[in-house]
């Protein structure tokens, strides 16, 4: 299927592997559900806070002030919790400035200056650039940091890589709690989570028409593709849409059973697409042309949500990134527009962005 390995990454991996990455957006995935904060962060030890992760555990003995935040999502959380990161990587979805628009706006307003952008290297983390920033903590929670990379990063400063597995950030709530624990800002993390959950529930209350409507979250077709990529129930895009009042397609169980290993996505053969019942289709794609190609496909165009013009396809990188790698900052940026687009789609007014 198309876009198979696409997920939010720094530019060290071709930004749209899979067409993607794929296209362009990189996908976020929560491969197999996510551990709660209590599962990933140990209690405060006598000599500091201990955080267990995929490469062992990291002890933080003092409240960090100079944080390098690598990859997706983490920079947003660090900034929202009260520290301007000293360095960040450019990620897919960033604007011409090198920063995602919601991060740039928030940091500019709160701190008056933006972090250093760590130059990209093909070989992995830019150790020299990171070391030059003199960090007292390195966070790389949404990443695929290898054993060797982790060891080299820890020579620079205490490092927290992924918790459960490579490229699996868990839920946005759990990630916020983990960063909050690392920064000694547990209470503030809970406040941010509560504020964001209130935003989501308020938007849901404002749109009772979402209640009970079924949906599929997926990807645009590759040219000549015979499968339509779809996301599973633990993917953040699916979870957020459900939180807004929608119900996942009744075909979700078959999606899950057909997925390989711990993937957060699978493919539906176009021959079986009509068996997938849904009132709405939401997706992202690498370009508006990909979106148009998808909805104009001879098979897809006759699928119920497409025939009813009940679809939302984000080919705008910032929008796609904001909903695919959600944080307390990106959700404030994207949710009002996303909800408006969902409401319009249910009225037969589709959305394709990135034109």
Tally of domains: 2
Count the DSSP helices: 14
Could you tell me the number of beta strands? 15
* Portion in strands: 15-25%
Write down the overall geometry: globular
Strand order of the largest sheet: 6-5-4-7-8
CATH architecture verdict of the largest domain: 3-Layer(aba) Sandwich
Q: Approximately how much helix is present in the residues?
A: 25-40%
What is the CATH class name of the largest domain? Answer: Alpha Beta
Task: Give an overview of the whole structure.
- There is one protein chain.
- The longest helix has 20 residues, at 186-205.
- Helix 3 runs parallel beside helix 4, helix 7 (172-183) packs antiparallel against helix 8 (186-205) and helix 13 (317-324) packs across helix 14 (330-346).
- Mean pLDDT is 88; it is low at 1-46.
- The protein folds into two domains: 37-184, Rossmann fold, CATH 3.40.50; 202-352, Rossmann fold (3-Layer(aba) Sandwich), CATH 3.40.50.
- It is an alpha/beta fold.
- It is built from 14 helices and 15 strands.
- The strands form four sheets. It has a five-stranded parallel sheet. Strands 11-9-13-14-15 form a five-stranded parallel sheet. Strands 1-2-3 form a three-stranded antiparallel sheet.
- It is globular, with a radius of gyration of 20 Å.
- 35% of the residues lie in helices and 17% in strands.
